[in-house]
Amino acid sequence: MIKYFPIDVANVDVTPNYNVAPTQEILAMTRHDEQNHLEKLHWGLVPFWANDATHGSRMINARSETLSTKPSFRTAFKWRRCLILADGFYEWKREKGQNQPMFLSLPDGRPFAFAGLWETWNDRGKETTPYRSGTILTREASRSVMPIHNRMPVILKPEAFGPWLDRNNQDIRLLQDIIKNRVYTKLKSVPVSKQVNSIKNNRPGNIRPLEPGAKA
After folding, report:
1. Residue 105 half-sphere exposure, CB side, CA atoms within 13 Å?
2. What is the DSSP letter of 60?
3. What is the model's pTM?
4. How far is it, in rounded angstroms, from Cα 60 to Cα 66?
5. Which residues contact 110 (CB under 8 A, 6 or more apart)?
6. Which residues, 6+ apart, have CB-to-CB distance to 140 below 8 Å?
7. What is the pLDDT of residues 12-54, one digit of tens each?
8. How many domains does the chain have?
């Protein structure tokens, strides 16, 4: 996966995760000291002013349309933007009165980057080990995703990586243009096993398409 992204420093072990849950660690690329760092963040943003880290389980996503006005996100939107790396995600489609899990990816299956925000929380200096967390931006669903859900993650094109990570870029209109227009919107979706409903099931078979007529 690393070969697809402009990573300068990678000091983390990269292991596959086929069923990521909120508060678990996710791979992210952040920018520090003029270099792109690969690191791990807890999924679910914990603002620096939060009372405890459990706040993050309620903030796994952030609506891209309101980033600059929401207190939970506006500071991170200005200073702490990141890329969250993946090669697919799950969404649940209502079908015949039941929820069918779908695996969505780029049509060619290559890895991609969600637009994200990150924060460091240490309970106002009380915690010796900072808790680093992130959230994934969402937008209105594209035509290919709308039959499944009315929202989708913001998936940035490679040309947007640099401007998005650049801490000197604080032009709200330019940033909004990036997450609105420099994105992938055409996705491939396939039905997968309902075993993905449990985080205990974390194996490659999770993303295997169901055979026609097979039970989920």
Report:
1. 15
2. S
3. 0.94
4. 15
5. 4, 87
6. 150, 151, 152
7. 998 999 999 999 999 999 999 899 999 999 999 998 888 888 8
8. 1
